[in-house]
């Protein structure tokens, strides 16, 4: 590493220490050590089931990363994954409580893969402890939390990557470049996102004992303390307002982010969503069928529209999305070509951009295609490619160049905010007129209260701080 680069890293570390001394990081103190280009970045992964397993695989594949710690509220999950990580050549410490983990000054970065209701508080705590952060999507449980996360990243000078990893997919990056730079479609007037996933009923589960080894109080964290049921726990927590944001904020946030990314726009001016929890009589609270519309006003130009649809059952493979799977399709999905009810996947997950010249369709796993003119003649296309989202985060941790992050927290906040706005519109049954500057709904205090999480509140001591 050249001397100028080394001096830059030293200067950056001193700046962080100065901020820590001036602002105070609470009980953790200044925990950030200097990371050089030739050092291994010491990462702690928090939340080890489901997406957390992808975090383990992603970091284990990087030669300049050491998985230094694991954290989970379930002893069984923690023990099993610690053994797996040791087989990969790492020797992680294990923690049940993230607050204990944050006392470890040797940790450089925290990678958060917990339920949504924990994301904001963990990210802010980590920033205050001098750690860089990778936080899963959606970054926040409500709109106000996202704003606090943006403030925390800036106040404590941290590198924060949002887990919308599609932004690091080479095929999607090429598609967005074609839309925004080459203008092959002309002036895009409609961006559409699809989240059509086969989601069966979750049934009803009674109150039952907390599983052995599970710290349910820690799992609950900021949310209200309620009796344990299986439907409030592993994965099905997505479908309850106290913990999740429905499929719009689960799978849908990826496509919602791409829909907005392709337009190159931020918060919308008007939001309307209608839908419901249809078909099933079960414990689920969030809608499983939802139609969302976002309007962007433009000075001296016609508005741009962004539409998003969540569908939980059967799909017609709109624009061919989901109609054919590549050879490495997910087990259980039919890997054949062609169109029709028995072809392809049960799901259609992707995006469509419409312009006066034609449209571009992005399949979540199969790449993109373009079609032009009245006859929809095929144009440029590209197969799906690899993602290096974790590698991009680690590179920025070393370089300290926030501008090189592909999914900075500022973008994560906006895209997550679109999901929160649509959910509030659905829950209130009315259109929201939004001010992108103040990030408040105009003349609607009830909506603003929901966007701040007032319907649920925060259970002490797990309170998201209000930063200035």
UniProtKB/TrEMBL annotation:
It holds the Pfam family GFO_IDH_MocA. Gene3D superfamilies: Dihydrodipicolinate Reductase, domain 2, NAD(P)-binding Rossmann-like Domain. InterPro entries: Gfo/Idh/MocA-like_OxRdtase_N (IPR000683), Gfo/Idh/MocA_oxidrdct_glycsds (IPR050463), Gfo/Idh/MocA_OxRdtase_bact_C (IPR043906), NAD(P)-bd_dom_sf (IPR036291), TAT_signal (IPR006311). It comes from the Bacteria. PROSITE patterns: TAT. Residues 41-163 form the Gfo/Idh/MocA-like oxidoreductase N-terminal domain. Residues 176-264, 385-456 form the Gfo/Idh/MocA-like oxidoreductase bacterial type C-terminal domain. GO terms for molecular function: nucleotide binding. PANTHER family: BCDNA.GH03377, OXIDOREDUCTASE FAMILY PROTEIN. This is Oxidoreductase domain protein. It comes from Terriglobus saanensis (strain ATCC BAA-1853 / DSM 23119 / SP1PR4).
